[in-house]
Amino acid sequence: MSQQVVRLITPERAVIRLHPADNVGVARVPLSPGQRVRVDERLVEVQEPIPVGHKLALEDIPAGKNVVRYGTAIGKATVPIRQGTHVHTHNVTLSNTPGVYEFPEHELPLPEPTPEAPTFLGYRRSDGRVGTRNYIAVVAASNCAAYVAELVARSFEHEPLPANVDGVRAFPHGHGCSIQIGPDTDQLYRTISGILDHPNVAGAVIIGLGCEVNHVGLYLDEKRLATGRLVGFTLQEVGGTRQAVRRARALVEQLIDRAAEDRRVPVPASEIVLGLQCGGSDAFSGITANPALGNCCDRLVRLGGTVVLAETTETFGAENLLVRRARNRQVAERYLALVEQYKAYLRPYASTFNDNPSPGNREGGLTNILEKSLGAVAKAGTSPLMDAIDYAERIRVRGLVFMNTPGNDPISLTGLAAGGVNVIAFTTGRGSTNGFPIVPVIKISSNTATYERMREDMDVNAGRIADGEATVEQVGGEIFQLVLRVASGERTASERLGHNEFVPWRIGPVL
Fold first, then answer.
1. Domain 3-93, architecture per CATH
2. Which of 276, 336, 356, 490 is deepest in the core (most CB within 10 A)?
3. Which H/E stretch holds residue 416?
4. Architecture of 120-259 per CATH?
5. Where are the domains of the chain?
6. What is the mean pLDDT of each run of 10 residues along the chain (511 residues)?
7. Inter-CA distances, 111 with 241, 274, 335, Å
8. By the 8 A CB rule, do 372 and 314 touch?
9. SS3 of 58, please?
10. CA torsion, points 198, 417, 170, 128, in degrees to nearest 10?
11. CB count, 10 Å around CB of 140?
């Protein structure tokens, strides 16, 4: 928040109360003892320093009583909390109450594209999906081929490419060998397949060592080879590292020649598949950036587009908000099964979802995972939940879709991309810099201070909502228009800086 905005903050605007039932408010600016703030008709005197983004008690909260934000209990007071004092981890505990779910009673129809939707310029692929970029991918089947994949992509960095070929991107990773055969290999296969078949990929080379578990033959089936978009080989068959680089370069050059023939064409906005991510969240994320992105998502869904909510750990405590929006009971139960599956995944490590809020999240004012989740799901808007899928599964339904991913940003982005999203919108409060090799990532700052401090990494300043300079609807409209421009080729901050993080989710043991 700029110094000019801080000076303009009046007692009536110093604290944000989101719901009439809330007994806490969020400080727009740092509050000092003795300062008086007005919330609705209530005048509250600040009793102790309240950092920006942190919670102020608007009334006395007895020990054991609910602390309420977003109109929902986010925990219980561990000690009596006086009006005007700081409410945070030192006096609030997470209350684990069993979920009582409102399952949908009626079936909702799947959304259809709107005939008069706005358009963007995209690459129409043979399978009907639309790309927003035109890359050549060099993918390692395992860690044993990761270095070669990087060498190949790096060798094209300073070579001129046709105007409509966006680049050659490497996909190195640390998996693929000495791994559990079963769920772990299945998930890696889905992830790699999703990159090879991605609508933003014009052509791909997959490289293996030759003796690994995740061998290249799994991917080189007749159907894929018939497209002319995929080729592959192993280091062992061509004679080692240098020979593999030469072979891959020759194959990439052929794929570039083919990709040079691709052209952007006008396509409706309903062909956008928008992945949603938040990282480095703060207390303003659920007030500004996430609701504004949710507004954008509702606009896109009304046109027949697709938005994909991820980060299972950051829906904990907000499950009923998604369950009661499901298009039928089967979708609701599938989503809840994914949540239970994640809990089972954590159980052997004596971990819980409340381990998720990072030190930075807590420093930014988020007290626990429930408070974080209630703000996080706002980025999905208000549309019905049409499907719930596992990590890196192909996205096949229009409307709002849930994907099971961790909250870890690079791993979640990888799952979303492998599922087929062609643009990603990423909200951040503390400031996050992750991107993805082949999918443009739009960064939306929840507060003006972060936007100004990390201007080179940010695309949108949603902090203007908290500053009183814009509404959620206005910023949501700006994000929607930016999504269309980015889908047509406009570069995002993460693309200009060269961010290309690719981290598949490993769920099994190392053997």
1. Roll (2.30)
2. 276
3. helix 409-419
4. 3-Layer(aba) Sandwich (3.40)
5. 3-93, 120-259, 268-497
6. 50 88 95 94 94 96 96 94 97 80 92 90 97 98 98 97 97 93 95 98 98 95 88 97 98 97 97 96 94 98 97 92 96 97 91 82 91 93 98 98 97 98 97 97 97 98 96 98 98 97 93 82
7. 49, 15, 19
8. yes
9. coil
10. 10
11. 29
CB 166 within 8 A of CB 135: yes
Strands 423-428 and 273-278: parallel
Residue 124: C-alpha distances to residues 72, 120, 138, 199, 481 (Å): 44, 11, 21, 8, 21
For residue 159, which amino acid is it? E
Task: Reduce the DSSP state of residue 248 to 3 states and report it.
Answer: helix
Rounded Cα gap, residues 245 and 265, in angstroms = 34
Distance CA 492, CA 495 (A): 5
CA distance 305 to 287: 24
For residue 88, the one-letter residue type is: H
CA atoms of 380 and 97, how far apart (whole Å): 24
**Of 60, 90, 132, 27, whose CA–CA distance to 487 is shortest?**
132
Say if pTM beats, i.e. exceeds, 0.85.
Answer: yes
- Tell me which residue of 420, 501, 495 sits closest to 201, measured CA to CA: 420
Backbone dihedral angles phi then psi of residue 25, each to the nearest 5 degrees = -130, 165
306: amino acid identity, one letter: T
The answer to whether the CB of 187 falls within 8 A of the CB of 419 is no
Q: Which residue has tokens 């269309």?
A: 484
